[in-house]
Amino acid sequence: MTTLYITGAGVSAESGIPTFRGEDGFWTIGSRNYTPQQMATRAMYQDNPAEFLKWYYHRFVTYRHHGPNTVHQWLADKNLITQNIDGLDGKAGNKDFISIHGRIDKMTIFHEQGEMVSIEAAPWEQIDENNLTASLLELFKISTKGPQLNASYKPYVLLFDEFYTELYGIEKAQKRMWDATKIVFMGTSFSVNITQMALDVARHKAIPVDVVDPSPAHILHDNVQYFPMTAREYIAHVE
């Protein structure tokens, strides 16, 4: 049996990283002038890069030193696609996980969507928090003219108005879905396209699906088991 695990923000909550749609979630906390759905967009990055980068830094990058928890460690040798950008699966030792939405510790050259570009380490330690705006713009090579294609840098993160491309490993992810004989969803609200994509494959192949979450989202699938528990509790249950 080839089990594919697809994880969401609930898996990293135990590591002290807020979820997205919970009370303290990233998508409930915006900036003074914009909602999170407006902030986390390519349009905001292009039109107001200073505001975008400050929001991104405070909402994501400040958690870069948090460590993996027992769930990440259990998943370290598993077939895994994660929606999380925190990189904790890599810290836990998984050498072949797919971070389908990107990584906070990486950046890319600002490119046309669909274009393959290099992925580089983001040197966050160079940021001067006492001069945050200027420091962020300098790090990402953004001038007063705004981000420039093939010159400026962009965080390696899939934004709301962008689409899955091979830069984020979509072809490899789809192959894993089609090769799977079972899919386990952990800590996800099923609010993003990758979970719907995996569900469509599971329905087409009529393979079993486990949904693990303290308040699991109910899905349309004939062969689904709901586990209203944390991922840690699920691990204890199946072992």
Description:
It is a single chain. With about 240 residues, this protein is of the alpha/beta class. The chain has two domains: about 1-15 and about 70-100 and about 165-239, TPP-binding domain (Rossmann fold); about 20-65 and about 110-155. The chain is about 30% helix and about 15% strand. The chain has nine helices and nine strands. The protein has helices at about 35-40, 40-45, 50-60, 70-75, 90, 130-140, 170-180, 195-205, 230-239, and strands spanning about 5, 80, 100, 100-110, 120, 155, 180-185, 210, 225. It has a six-stranded parallel beta sheet with strand order 3-2-1-7-8-9, covered by helices on one side. The protein has a three-stranded antiparallel beta sheet with strand order 5-4-6, with no helix packed on it. Helix 3 packs across helix 6 (about 130-140). The longest helix is centred in the last third of the chain and has 13 residues, at about 195-205. It is globular and about 55 Å long. Residues about 20-30 have low confidence and may be disordered.
